[in-house]
Amino acid sequence: MSKFDEARQDPEDTKPDLARRRFFGTAAAAAAAATMVPGLSILPASARSPAEPVSDERRWGMLVDVNKCAEGCTACVDACHEENGVTHHGRPTTDPYWIRKVKLRDRMTNREYSMPLLCQHCEKPPCVDVCPTGASFRRADGIVLVDKHICIGCRYCMMACPYKARSFIHEPTTDQKPDVPRGKGTVESCTFCVHRVDAGGDQQPACAEACQAEGHEALVFGDLRDPESRLYRLLTEISSRQLREDLALNTGVRYHGI
To answer: What residue ranges in 81-157 does DSSP mark as E strands?
Structure first.
């Protein structure tokens, strides 16, 4: 286990309340059957073979170097939404987003900088804790996802997320990507392009790939537990921090320069 992982929590502490899950699961199934609409893909979200189960030997994460993030550049946002088939309808407050650029100002120095904000893929995700159906879940390798087939659109997870990293789909979805199921009435967020991760090889999430193509190198993706990975080495060489460290969520996304 690497120095970047907190002590593993007791399995008994994370075991879901089975009675509560069964109760809400039954209600969710009925609600989902009544509210499901055309446009929700039933294709699997993962290209990973069932013979290769996800394990906790890896923990996927990302380093965001704010000093290298170019103001006005939207390459990461554009690439993410193109890769995952996320469309916009001209309503900034309700349009879906998986990653967005935000501008921050240091109150002491008045320094301003921009940085991408996405799902932080927490080790202890609040979104998972409040989900009544189990639609929000965390994989063994640290990626936090939403199962669209049992999401009932209650949006509890959106309220629980301290990073405002989740959005709700208000319109029917069209022209979906084969590996990225989406559907009206469900919640979604960054998946670290899990379909790429599960395909194996050296594939990066679309945002990191686009940032590198622009020559900025502000996003570095990799295995937080692999001493040979570039991400691991960078985190041992430069300072980094989590957003809202006070919440002790042990996020998979770390920031340098804030």
So the answer is: 99-105, 112-118, 136-138, 144-146
Domain count, the chain: 1
Angstrom CA distances, 133 to 136, 145, 186, 223, 243, stand at: 8, 13, 13, 29, 27
Dist. CA 154–CA 147, nearest whole Å: 13
What pTM, to 2 d.p., does this model score?
Answer: 0.78
What tens digit of pLDDT does each residue of 25-76 get?
444 444 444 343 344 433 333 344 545 678 889 999 999 999 999 988 999 9
Name the residue among 190, 144, 143 with its Cα closest to residue 135.
144
User: Is 167 part of any domain?
Assistant: yes
The secondary structure of residue 68, as a DSSP letter, is G
In a domain, 94, yes or no: yes
- Can you tell me whether residue 175 is helix, strand or coil? coil
Please state, in angstroms and rounded to a whole number, the distance separating the CA atoms of residues 197 and 120. Answer: 16
Please enumerate in sequence order all residues whose Cβ is within 8 A of that of 102, keeping only pairs 6 or more positions apart, or say none: 114, 115, 116, 117
* C-alpha distances in Å from residue 183, one per residue of 8, 59, 140, 154, 214: 34, 28, 25, 14, 32
